[in-house]
Specification:
Blueprint: E1 6-16, H1 23-30, H2 33-39, E2 43-48, E3 61-69, E4 77-89, E5 92-99, E6 103-113, E7 126-137, H3 141-176
Antiparallel strand pairs: 1-7, 2-3, 3-4, 4-5, 5-6, 6-7
Length: 177
């Protein structure tokens, strides 16, 4: 039975990445599921579920635990555990999250050329486009959307920071030899 208070909304953001980053490097980062999970500032634990687990899907599925603050200033923090599956695609990453209280999130992280030249070539660098379709109780929606926006903005910042650090290290090593 579907609740008449159930609703869906789309949360979408686009971030231009540093122009020195290559398509393959960014894509490899997106395809590192464990890294993507731990870059989320809410995550405190995660593990890959066995393939024969009831919660598992055809794609790698993880049990993830977040620490969330339901009141300002961390006056009431709690932990929430949910499952998320990840599927690598040629332009990025798809995810499907099933959380308590009927919260479902279908996400896509897609890499596009800023100048529109081609998949692996761009004079202007690349943009990371995230689109998440959130389905949950109408009264939870503002909280869920706000939490996704805030945590994923930080996740993207950390993602680019790590990619730049890795890029600088590989440039240094290739120039040193």
């Amino acid at each position: 039975m579907t609740s008449r208070f159930r609703t869906s909304a789309i949360v979408s953001t686009t971030a231009r990445l540093h122009s020195s980053l290559k398509f393959s490097q960014i894509l490899n980062g997106l395809h590192d599921h464990s890294r993507m999970i731990t870059l989320n500032p809410l995550v405190i634990d995660h593990y890959l579920l066995p393939a024969n687990s009831p919660e598992s899907t055809a794609s790698p599925t993880y049990s993830i635990t977040d620490q969330i603050s339901t009141l300002p200033f961390h006056l009431w923090d709690s932990e929430i555990t949910y499952t998320a599956s990840f599927e690598n695609i040629p332009s990025g990453l798809l995810s499907k999250t099933n959380a308590p209280m009927g919260v479902e999130i279908a996400g896509e992280w897609r890499l596009v050329a800023s100048g529109g030249v081609g998949q692996d070539v761009s004079d202007e660098g690349f943009e990371l486009v995230e689109t998440a379709t959130v389905t949950c109780n109408l009264f939870l929606m503002p909280y869920i959307k706000g939490t996704i926006k805030k945590s994923h903005d930080e996740l993207r910042r950390r993602f680019e920071e790590i990619l730049l650090r890795d890029h600088e290290q590989s440039s240094f090593l290739s120039g040193a030899g």
